[in-house]
Amino acid sequence: MVVLNKIYTRTGDAGETALGDGSRVSKHSLRVRAYGTVDELNSVVGIARLHAEGDPDEALARIQNDLFDLGADLCRPDMARDSDAEYAPLRMVPSQTERLESEIDAMNGRLEPLRSFILPGGTPLAAYLHQCRTVARRAERHVIELATMEGVNEAAVIYLNRLSDWFFVAARISNDEGRADVMWVPGANR
Fold this sequence. Notes:
- The protein is mainly alpha-helical.
- It is 53% helix and 5% strand.
- It has helices spanning 30-49, 55-74, 94-108, 124-147, 154-174; strands at residues 16-18, 24-26, 118-119, 182-183.
- Helix 1 (30-49) runs antiparallel to helix 4, helix 3 packs parallel to helix 5 (154-174) and helix 4 (124-147) runs antiparallel to helix 5 (154-174).
- It is elongated.
- It starts with 15 loop residues before the first strand and ends in a 7-residue tail after the last strand.
- Keywords: ATP-binding, Cobalamin biosynthesis, Cytoplasm, Nucleotide-binding, Transferase.
- Residues 7-173 form the Cobalamin adenosyltransferase-like domain.
- InterPro entries: CblAdoTrfase-like, CblAdoTrfase-like_sf, PduO-typ.
């Protein structure tokens, strides 16, 4: 159980922060950059939810919760020592990605195939979902970079990869099931 009774602690004033296992690292470390970008993504999802109602909002709420799970996973290094932890660390699991895939398949079944690339935009919800997609891709790049140097849960990487696909398809659904997508016209302004 998390208890936050004091927001500022002054322990990070020298440029370090504590990870989930209690170790301290620089605030510019790859691990902090990775889970910090996941936190940024969660904030953008919150903005997208301002324009969502019904099913899209419920799905985005589930994703926000998954993103907190993902941040908890990423802030806890050294998965090999999970069994030594006082309590079981929260890790991403394949079923979270499987749920995204099922939702992608259901949404994609409502769309005509793309015959051109699309530009981010259309409805406000679609535009924010495209922003979510690009922030998810940046988070994925940071997590993959981290994985080249330290242990990272493979399920976390796969979840982020699939999540950006989810945002892309959801943006198309939000654009009148693709009918209001903004098409790229190659060389249109030459």
